[in-house]
Amino acid sequence: MKSEDLRYSRSRRLKNQILAVVTNPYNIIVVVTVLLLTYLIIFPLLDMLSTTFSLSQRDLRQVTGGVTGQFTFYYWKRLLASELSVNLLIKPLLNSLLIGFGVSIGSIALGAALAWLMIRTDLPCKPFFSLAVIIPYMIPSWCKSQAWLSMFKTARIGGSPGFLASLGIHVPDWLAYGPVAIIIVLTLHYYAYTYLLVSSALNSINSELEEMGEIQGAGKARILRTITLPLVMPAMLSAVILTFSKAIGTFGVINYLGTKVNFVTLSSQLYMNSKSQNTQTAFAMAIVMICIASISVFINQRVIGSRKSYATIGGKGGRSTPIGLGKQKPIITIALFAFFVVGIIAPIAILVLESFMLKDGVYSLSNFTTYYWVGTGNTHIMEGVPGIFRNTNFVRALINSLKLTFVNGIFGTIFGQIIGYICAKGRGKFHGQLVEQLVFIPYLIPSVAFGGIYLSMFSRPQSLFGVQLIPALYGTFALLVITSVVKHLPFASRAGTSNMLQISGELEEAATIEGAGFFRRLAKIVFPLSKGGFISGFMLIFVSIMKELDLIILIMTPTTSTLPYLAFQYSNQNSPQASNCVAIVMFSIVFLVYALANIFGDADLAKSMAG
Amino acid sequence: MSKIELKGVNKFYGKNHVLKDLNLTIEDGDFMTLLGPSGCGKTTTLRVVSGLEKPQSGCIHMDGKEIVNAAEAYFAPPAQRNLNLVFQSYALWPHMTVFDNVAFGLKIHKVSADEIKKKVEMALNRMQISEFAKRYPGELSGGQQQRVAIARAIVSEPRLLLLDEPLSNLDAKLRVDMRSELKRLHHETGTTIIYVTHDQVEALTMSTKIALFRKGELVQVAPPLELYDNPKNLYVADFIGNPSINFVKCKAKLSDAGMAVSGVLGNMEFSRADMTPDAPRSGECDVTLGVRPEQITIQRERTSPTDVEARVYSGMPAGSETLVSVKVGDVLLTVKEIGSSRYSSDDTVYLSIHRQKINVFDTASEELIKYCV
Hints:
The structure holds two protein chains of two kinds. Chain A has 28 helices and two strands. By secondary structure, chain A is mainly alpha-helical. Chain A has a two-stranded antiparallel ribbon. Chain A is globular, with a radius of gyration of 26 Å. Chain B has helices at residues 42-50, 98-108, 113-126, 142-154, 172-189, 200-206, 224-229, 234-239, and strands at 4-13, 16-26, 31-35, 57-62, 65-69, 74-75, 83-86, 160-164, 192-197, 209-214, 217-222, 246-255, 258-263, 266-271, 283-291, 296-299, 308-317, 321-328, 331-338, 348-353, 359-362, 368-370. In chain B, strands 7-8-9-3-10-11 form a six-stranded mixed β-sheet, sandwiched between helices. A six-stranded antiparallel β-sheet of chain B has the order 14-13-12-15-21-22. A five-stranded antiparallel β-sheet of chain B has the order 2-1-4-5-6, with helices on one face. Chain B folds into two domains: 4-233, P-loop containing nucleotide triphosphate hydrolases (Rossmann fold, 3-Layer(aba) Sandwich); 239-370, CATH 2.40.50.140. At the A-B interface, helix 1, helix 23 and helix 24 of A face strand 4, strand 6, strand 7 and helix 2 of B.
């Protein structure tokens, strides 16, 4: 601009630039968020990485002339290239992949089929089914494995027989334990992801697209294959990633159904190593798992490419004419009912039934007891531990769980919405992408490992430039909260982003024009409009944390124990009844909260997950 | 009631250069329409004026006061510019009633409750929607929402009112009603209005001035009729007018006296007095004649030797007017006749053309070289 009537002064320009940055609260929030995320995500990750290269006291004699803390390739060599590798890494890795692929395939097939039936066909009893389909997501997977054991347990492992065995039915070992059992149980859990994602994708497809195919003369199968399926493909691929990385990182189910037959995966090995203070090896395994998860995400992005979603191309979407199932309708309906009875009602029923049995595996009326619920402490049963409602441990765990879920639900949702706001506003800009990428990282870290990193990092006081920022948090409630909030940030912020994207930018601009400042816009426009998403986000975190076991299993101390951990302990102490009681209470709370949120708010799990 | 001056404004979105060295002055009390096809930068111009977008260079003055000086990174916040904006989507806050939507800005400026009530009621009355004050936007029709959006924009009596394609979401009949409503509003308040549209009929009927955009550049700024009669170049001529102008390629011989044109429409002479100052004064060149469809009269019989014989391609009676496509040689022309008459395809007809009204453009430079008089 050389025109003479343009004033120009370098100092004024600088002043204006600084003023523009400093007086805009949005910039400050972005900066604070980036700093916090870096500290809570990048630092722990680097800490973990450096730990695997640093010699620990206990391994001093493994390295000649080693000094504690010295740089070493010892752990990586041991893991990747030693005679131990096969047992330490290769076998568990192959098992992990087996579980990952098995569960992904099963979940996609089951979830997509259910979604299609529910959304696009004239299936009867839809309201019932649409609720029933979500329930598995609310029953923790380790609860299901407990139910599985109650049903199929064989005499081989010792202890009492399962329901089928007590009826005199022979159950083969390969069905009772090991990969088949694990894949089935996990599939029955994780199909919910596919179901939720695919059904929201199907919902956004205009049925005129399918009708056009029909007019062109395509049969139902062909329409499904050439029109519907490609349109929901992006949603299905996202579901694969979600399922695959979750299945690989899962630990509880492996512990219940695999360990007893020496079926180990990376996650269970990671847990064992962590538990036995082999932190370096455990972290190295965690890094291997992070790499696998990253590769799967990378492949997913390559496959989907820029066509992230067809949803918007589908146009109005509003019109949806259900497809007639014709003669198969009664058969499909009955099959679905059977599926729900076997897959959902049965596990719950078995859990409830078993919780009233004095000795597990003995199915007779004389064996009926309410001891595990309200017993007053009998030295012959469970070493005198009273029934859960009279048990101070249970009460404490219950209070802890509720406290954890509510504190987390609230903090997690608020952070999630704020980060979502940044991601939505910063779409296509550097800061938006940075925050989006940062917040995605915890998703790639397996839960057990994530707990391990935070345990090792926050067990000692954290200081920066000699100033102590955070005291040692070992055994505190605060550590539980931080760990779960950060681990659930990817979900929470995804829910937040999709929520914020629904609020048109013009609504905020209209307020800017009227002279509303940043905070006023948040308070008067953004938050009132995002209320529904807020409740959904809260629900998502609440449900997820209430049943969380893998993530906090390493952090647990007796005073901070939660319901899932208590159930896990009871189960390990061979008191499945008490464990069942705890699981039932927990499940009831989850279901109750979900029902309440559904009735009083327009909470929608699918919406917040679809991102 | 304010004068806006944009000087050397450039705006980039990443590498995409959306506004190219824009210079535009909007006089006090103007109804200035920014017109152009989608993606030409007209909405961006509006957003730059409103303060929602920051240009990379250039400056903007409002009543002589600087509101944007990109070189010094000075951008007055939108709220300090004393303007208001009606969005294409209306951007009504769905969680507030009509009253609260309109009152929002007043509340922020800490106007007393009595005053707010009075002003909001006045604005709602003016837009004839006072009975909807307690409703939510979702309970209103598109036309009513539109009125709420305008009420919200005028309640604070801004000196400058910005309208971003406000009528594009309305059905055809409502659009005509709202046009006269907006023109009335401009007349009554005297507020300076900047109005963005891609609809040339809206632009021609409502504005005091039109600024025509092409790919981020300003092509011509003129009052509507001037733009219609003497478009600066082929682009403007083609864009303005419905049905579109007819283009006929011809040869021209230029001299100091004027020019002689020959082509399928016959031989014509134009005098130098009707030509632009920049028109060449000698030589031969390819020219394009621009003939408005209403400047051609269609007859069944030849009435003059200069009439051009043509064949009817198709006739399209529409009640108040009839459009007829005719072929002269290989050239397809559109003719507009008032009233309805029936022409069958392949009828032979004779065209008489109002020669003084013809625009002549230099085919190579696309610029206008002969005015319509």
